[in-house]
Amino acid sequence: MMALPSTPEIHRKCTRILGPCLIALGVLSIAANVLLLFPSWTWSYVKEGRITKQAMQVPGVWGGGIIMFLSIVLSGLALLGSTACFILSGVGLTNGPLCLYNQTEVPKWDYPFSLSLRAQNYLYDPSLWNSVCIEPPNIVAWNIYFFSILLVISVVEMVLASLQIINGFFGCLCGLCEGK
């Protein structure tokens, strides 16, 4: 009959898997958020302050990245950070990008998709993506892609951080019992 692995053995194996996964997701989250700051691969929009508020809050850097790296020690804070990244990315996706668009006569920098004048949801109408925003080029798709990536990454991070908290809790509990 095959023996089942002991709880400390399971804890060690789980820790070996969770750590590298969280590090990889942290790096991806930072990269996705940094790319949100440079639409169409130019830095002029950052310099001019023409970047979405949620992208400028860099949730992928501090919430999904740096705090995730500290998750080994601060798993609870990692869960909070990934949750914040999820919420801010969702708000960024809902509000749409900050862009130059035609508002009657004079082009204006604003969030045209978050204004109450737009009853339709821009996420489901790709024809609006390039017809509303004049500048930066392709900013709507850019925001959708990278905020969506941040949403997916933050969900995975929340699950892994929760597993790490549970794993740490049982590891501590079983580690205390192991010597008895």
TrEMBL record:
It holds the Pfam family L6_membrane. GO terms for cellular component: membrane. It is found in: Membrane. InterPro entries: L6_membrane. Keywords: Membrane, Transmembrane, Transmembrane helix. The chain crosses the membrane at residues 21-41, 61-88, 144-166. It is a multi-pass membrane protein. It comes from the Eukaryota. Belongs to the L6 tetraspanin family. This is Transmembrane 4 L six family member 19. It comes from Terrapene triunguis (Three-toed box turtle).
